Structures are given as C-alpha cells and as structure tokens.
Amino acid sequence: MLRLSADKLDKLFSAISDAKELYLPVEENGSSKFDKWSEETQVNLNRLNTVKSPKDLFFPQSEDLMRFKKEGKKITVDTPDENCKEFVVFGVRACDVKSIEVLDRVFLSEPVDTYYESKRKAATIVSLACSEPEESCFCNIFGIDATEPAADVSTWLADDYLYWEAKTEKGEALTESIKSVFEQAEDTSAVDAQKENVKAIIEKLPLSGLNLDYFKNNDMMDIFNSEKWDELYEACLGCGTCTFVCPTCQCYDIRDYDTGHGIVRYRCWDSCMYSDFTLMAGGQPRTTQKERFRQRFMHKLVYFPMNNDGEFSCVGCGRCVNKCPVRLNIAKVIRALGGEV
Amino acid sequence: MQRVIDKVKELLANGVADRVLAWKVGEFPYDRIPGVFKDDLDGLCYDSFSACNLSKYLINETKKDGRVLVLMKPCDSYGVNLLIKEHRIDREKIYILAVPCNCKVDIEKIKDSGIKGIIDIAEEGDVLKINTVYGQKELDRRQVLCDKCLSCQGKKHVIYDEIIEDDEQQNIEKTDRMEAVEELEAMSPEERFAFWRSELSKCIRCNACRNVCPACSCNKCIFDNTDTGVAAKSNADSFEENMFHIIRAFHVAGRCTDCGECSRVCPQNIPLHLLNRKFIKEINELYGEFQAGEDAVTTGPLTFFTMEDAEPDVVYKKGRD
Questions:
Q1: ipTM beyond 0.90?
Q2: A329: nearest CB among B27, B206, B236
Q3: Which of A201, A205, A239 to mutate to test the interface with B (most CBs of B within 10 A)?
C-alpha cells in the first residue's frame, strides 16, 4: 500500500490531471457533483454522496447520438467521435462503484451500448472508503463493504494520510504514472482501525437491518399485487428526483430536436415516475401514479434481480432517501412490504 | 401536538369528515410524509418537521367520496383558497382545521451543520437534542429553520373551519421577503444574468418544483405533452432549463402564493422562489398590492383589464438601466 499526506492531495490531483482528465466530488454553488478538477475547484471529500452520482460520466443525462443535416437533396448524418479521452474518477464511494457494475450489466451486455462502452473503457476509477456513514446508508444489505470499496484503485483517508492501493491493471498503470507523489506505507494500522470503527458504526445505523428476503422468496405477482402499494405511493408527487439522483436508474428516452439548421437526435434520462414514460402508439401501460411508483421498486428489487443472477439494482447509497421532497423512499418500501428488522 | 391529535379525534368522532389528511411519521425521526388516515391515527404527527404543504393533495382527495379533514398551516392555507378559486377542489368536501405554526426545521440544514448518523431528535424549547451514532449533539432550532419560514406571510390562516389557537410566542426574527429580490435588482443586467445562469444550470429537470406547486395544477403540463413539440425530460441545449423555469414563473404569475415549496424541494438548492417573488413585486408595483390566495373570490390582477393598466412598454423602460 502507498500513501501521501492528506495536505498534499492537490499534488496528487495535479499529477493525475497532467496526463488525464480528472473528475472528483466538488462543491459548487450550494450543490455538489463530480466535476473536472482544476486548481480553483472546491474539492470536498468529506461529503458522503454528491447530489448526482458519477453515473453522468458514463451515461450523461443528455447525450447527442447523431446529427442530421439537409442541404438540397443531400442528407448528411454525423455521429459523435466515440473515442473518448482517457479520464480518472476519484473519490467514488463503494456504493457508487457497485452502481457502475449494475450499469455495466445493462449497457455492456449484447447488444453493447457503444456510447457507454467508450466512456467506460476510457475511465480509471479510484474509490474512497467511507469514514463516516450516515443514517441514510444501507449498502451493507446489498453485500457492499463501505470500508473496502472495489474499483481500479481503492483509497482510504485516515489519520491525515491518503492510503492508496491499486487493484487492477488499469489501477496499476495509473499508480505507475504518478508514483513520485507517494511514499511506501509501512504501517497501515490507521486503515485497519478505520475499517473496524466504520463497521461498528454501520451496525448501529437504522437501515442496516433491512431484510430483502421478502423480495428473494416471494412470487413476483404476489409482490406486484400487494395491497401495500396503495398506501405507499399515496404521497408521491410524481417528480423524477429519486430516479435522477439514483446511481443505477438507467432508463432513457430518445428524442429529435429541431435546431433550426438540422436535427439533433439525443437521448436523455427518462423517469418511470413521468406520465409519458414508455408511452407508445398503442397507449400508456401505466396510467396511474401508483403503477409508476410500483414500477420503480419492482424494477430495482424484483425484475432486475430476476434477470441478473439475483443482483438487486439498488446499492443503498441513500440519495433518494435524502432527496425525496415528501420523504418517501426505497427503505420505507422494503420495510413496509416485508423487510422487518 | 397532542392538542392537534385530540382535536382530530374529536372532529372525526363528531362526523365532520370520514378521514384526515395530515403528516405521517416515516423512516427517520424527521420524516413527515403527507398521508391520509381513516380510523387508525397511528403515526399522525404535527411538529417542527411537518413542512410539506398539504393543499395540493386536496385535488386528489376531493375527487373521492366523503369529506376530508385537513390540517392546515398558515402558509398552506393560501394554496387552498387558490385551488378553490380555480375550481380545482370542492370546498364542500373539505373541513379545515387550522394548526398553529412556529416555523419548521430544515433537516438539510441540520445535516449541513455537520451532524450525521441521526437516530433521534427531541425538542426542548428552542433546543434540538440530537442523538446520533457519533454521539449526542445540540442545536438551536432557530439556526436551522426552513428558508421559506424565515420570510413567510405570518401566522394568519386565510381559510379554516376551526382553529387551534396559537399559544406560543413567536420568537423568530423574520426577514423582509423582498430583501433578496432587491439585492438582485441592484445588480447590473450582466451580473443578474450570470446569477440566474449559474443557479438554473444546476437544474436536473426532476420537476419537483412544478409537481409540488399548488399553482401548477394543469391536468397535463405542456412540458409533459409529447404533442406540443416542447416536451422535454432533459435539456437538449444549455439554455433549455432556463426557459423551463422562466415559462413556469410566467404561468404562475399572479397566482403564486409564495409558499416557498419550490425552493424547499429543489434537490439542487436553486432559489426558485426568487423568480416568483420578483413577479409578485412587479405586480404589486404595477397593479397595486395583491396576495394570491388571500381569499377565494378576488379576480387576480393579470386576469382582467382596465384602461389604467400599465402599457407593455414598461418592460422596455425597465430594461434600460
């Protein structure tokens, strides 16, 4: 394991960005997001979750797919350059690392989504272990270890040092390219102590006892038809906050935009909470907010695992828990349907 | 709080309504979710965290049979009048219990103060005693009040059937609600443009501001209607989210009650209420003082015409500093 003093993080960031673009959690104008590093950037590694997850870097909220231009009788079609420049994402929490695995299952299975793939291939992911989990955290119920995040490189901020451990070939290549900023960490007891401490905290968190057995052991249609949905959805405003702050929500829409000089075909995040979600020529399969609300949780907790070797498509990051305007959330749904502590 | 529950029980027992729309406790000690209770009032709660405006939920509730008892804070009561005036809700199907308000606490501000891992919150006077997995913390509730409460219209309910009298002394220092608008007005057009660009460009098009707004009660919003050509789920270009908010502000002009919910629910902390307040200020100056939702009958200043009305050129004159 390598390390560098936490007050020299800027040196690390500058070394990384000499060779590649670097994205990391920044504070900006009363909000937070993964953004490109520069010397003026206000980096915040204490924040547990950015408002939007790093999903945007691989699957942007809005992305041009192609452009059409008509001159006389000639129509030209331009597609964007798919050779994405190599970049590094730093400070990704264990839950968000897992969320990228969830997205991989969707976009990298046949037929491969080449727009996603090019960004995914270009990225080196550097994770950051959690040191102060919050009450909205429940990654542990999905088998995620917040103290031992996966990714190309894992890091820990403990006792004024950043500890650095490459986990993959990509991670080793990055480490090699910037190794002069590090020193060898002879003593890693600070990391071990933090891991132990954080694990003890996680056990005390209110959502850490949520139980998913109900979703694993019951028939899909029984869950679908549960009477509890009637009460659960009641307060839902039908806004898209939960879906847009979610690191794993991956539904999108494709639209054409008339620029006045041509057409841009773009895709953008869609939300199952919206009334025109999956609207098709034959009509709308989910006409009420109850059905839309149910869809979101059935997808995360039932349909996705059925199609993906039992993997849930929630990672317990807690963003929807914190951001729902009326404080509905997946934890409440899991508990109400049958996940008692 | 117990007074409120007792009153609700009494009213339901007297048969004034067959159900009650109120706030329900949720997962965390600060979660207050709008909810309807019938016989079992378990989980009904009215306290410092009951910030959600319930007025818009009456649209759905009054489509059902029977009569609904609703708990109303002063700021939310303006929304009820607006919805009655716009024929969105049926007054006959509602029984309004006015509940006193001494400002609501913003959980995000508690968390921004560095408090994490909250297990429990107890309120003793102005002190919030917060039990967390990282130890016991204390905060003065006046430091963490919702922004919308700091410049609200006051403690008056504008509509109710019955009222629970306020027995608490107001000890919160309020700010003038136009103060921030005046600061924006004092900026140069370039500075103001930069301000709104930097704020609005944070928008993720989640529509929370629109969906929570009591003045946004169209059955089908133009931005959701795929036949209009302007429907959009995300911003196809870098100015589109600005247009969304500007158009929405125009649409609710003269109707916005200034309840502050738009800014409260914004996941990106965009001060959307400032757009609406600017409109309110302009309307007050051009057409005389008007408070939307003050009553359920007065015609709004932008929905009728008099010969004395300002000419459209006031806009151009204002634009030239």
A1: yes
A2: B27
A3: A239
